[in-house]
Structure formats: structure tokens, C-alpha cells
Amino acid sequence: MKAIIVCTSVSHGNTRRIADVIAEVLDARVVEPGEIDSAELAGYDLVGFGSGIYLRSYHEDLRSFIDSLAVERRSKAFVFATSGFPDKGIHRFSRPLVQLLEQKGFDVVAAFSSRAWDTYFPFKPFGGIRKGRPNADDLESARTFAEVLRGSVQDSLPGTG
């Protein structure tokens, strides 16, 4: 299985830490949106997309990159994020990104979210929330997520299941 992760991590490196753990398990390269030509994505069986969450949305650089992709049949994908708050309830912050990826032709097979140090306003004057996150348990959760993802995607590839 050939995998790549497109990741934007700008505030504290939280998302990159999660991306690196997932990449290690998937034997994937981690790139920023500006470091890969969109046509290259066709050469991968699995593409991950992740960033920190800003005002309940993925980073603009990641969303712009995905928005610029042509609509065509694409590989499997997953999304991941780091945030001070959980990705749950009727207003999941992952939902719009998953829908955009599906509109572009990806088969989105999984989503992962980790709590992380968040210093966005109004938390900044108080030093933020979730300081020390992602911690060792969060990184282990990311590793477990990637192991399960790897197994399910490998099993679904032609000639392997």
C-alpha cells in the first residue's frame, strides 16, 4: 500500500506530531499542501488530510488545496485533526472536509481527532487549554488508529483481500 499525508501544522506543531505517528505506521511521507502537485495524488492508494482546527474548521491552506483538486475518481482517504475540543455532535468539524473530499472523488474511510494545546482567542490570555496535549496517550491513540486503518485499507486493495 502506498500512502501520503497532506498536513498543515502551524501553531504548536501538534498536528505534525500526530501526522508523524500515523506516517510511521503507514510508511507514508508527510507533505504540506504546497509541497505536492495535485496530480501526484493519483499514485497513492491512501491519502491523509489533516490540520489543526481554527474556528471549527480545518486550516485554510488545506481546504484551498483540496478545493483546487479536479473532480475525478480517486483513492481512499482519511482525515485527522488536532483541536482543543472534540469532534463530536451534530456540528462535527470533520464533516465539511469529508464532504468536500467526497465531492472531489475520494472514498473517505476514516477520521481521527486528538485533543491538543489550543491558544486561540479567547483562550490565549490564559495560556490556552489542553496544555501538554497531544500527550503519550494521544500519540498511542493515533498509532492504533493508523494500524487499524492500514489493515482495513490493505485488505480492500485488489489482490490482497
Structure explained in plain terms:
With 161 residues, the chain is of the alpha/beta class. It contains four helices and six strands, in the order βαβββαβαβα. It has helices spanning 14-26, 60-67, 94-103, 136-156; strands at residues 3-8, 29-31, 46-54, 57-58, 76-83, 107-115. Strand 5, helix 3 (94-103) and strand 6 (107-115) form a beta-alpha-beta unit. The model has no long low-confidence stretch (mean pLDDT 87).
Shape: globular
Main structural class: alpha/beta
Order of helices and strands: EHEEEHEHEH
Percent strand: 15-25%
Strand elements, count: 6
Distance between the termini: 13 Å
Mean pLDDT: 87
The DSSP helix count reads 4
As residue ranges, the low-confidence spans are none
Largest sheet: 6 strands, mixed
- Give the radius of gyration: 15 Å
How much helical structure, as a percent, in the residues? 25-40%
